């Protein structure tokens, strides 16, 4: 019997599809502080649920699952049908996986205790961010944040397991459902992005070691509320216009953040007279994206302090958010610190 040594194909007839998410997680297992396999499986559970939500999103217009559900969530926002569906899908995946003891979701008033005393992790999640954009075919997303519980495994969950600052996150990420579906995550060792290949049903590494430009020429803010901005922020926006920066605001946090992460820019949702505490939620939106931003060399603040240092005081706590390229975040902070008035006034 003859034995032939394997050599990689160089004919070019079959292109390489790359590294799958599962394989990448296994390769990076040693990066996890508590490398016992649970966190790896938890990330796989989230990836599986995101594939299902991707399928539901893609067929929303054909299956009568677009539009409003007819109820409001704890935020006072009208729930969309896909909000409810996505919440169910992620709840099922996280509860069946066995790694999670509690879940905080945008769609639920209270902490969901999974009655899994052996679970080591708490997940905070926005199952479907920007869902009001579904009916007009604009990109939407999922945002998730993972914490290691503080109380001993085997005991009932306590409030301190949930109310942790973002600096305690062991992993966070988002899924962007757009022209292609991407999963981007960090475990505190850089940021990597994976693109979904639907014909194979797999996420493949497409954006290794993602790094945000230190500066940019894109600003993302809802200028419809401009009159409610403080003078410093108004002046900064005017300066962006003078420099002919591009104004890009989709109204879908994940999509706006993802674009600026890749191209350089700043996303701003400030405190205003109408929303003095801002609008975005700390536990399952701002913290997750702030962790990713910092791991990619970007920055995230509430206008006064680092997002990841804020100690939450309530489950659905809101916060202002300035996130993106370091130089842009620092510059707008300087404008607001000095409360620089618009020169023309």
TrEMBL record:
Instruction: Please tell me where Mg(2+) 1 binds in this chain.
Output: 106, 126, 128
Please write the reaction equations for the catalytic activity of this protein.
beta-D-fructose 1,6-bisphosphate + H2O = beta-D-fructose 6-phosphate + phosphate
* Positions that bind Mg(2+) 2: 126, 129, 285
Give the GO molecular function terms: fructose 1,6-bisphosphate 1-phosphatase activity; magnesium ion binding
What is the UniProt remark on how the cofactor binds and its stoichiometry? Binds 2 magnesium ions per subunit.
Q: Which organism is it from?
A: Mongoliibacter ruber
Domain Fructose-1-6-bisphosphatase class I N-terminal positions:
20-208
Name it. Answer: Fructose-1,6-bisphosphatase class 1
Q: Which UniProt keywords apply?
A: Carbohydrate metabolism, Cytoplasm, Hydrolase, Magnesium, Metal-binding
What HAMAP family does the database record attribute to this sequence?
Answer: FBPase_class1
* Residues noted as binding substrate in the record, renumbered to the chain: 129-132, 222, 249, 279
The record's listing under SUPFAM superfamilies reads: Carbohydrate phosphatase
The cofactors it requires, by name, are: Mg(2+)
GO CC entries? cytosol
Domain Fructose-1-6-bisphosphatase class 1 C-terminal: from-to ranges = 213-336
Please give the superkingdom of this protein's source.
Bacteria
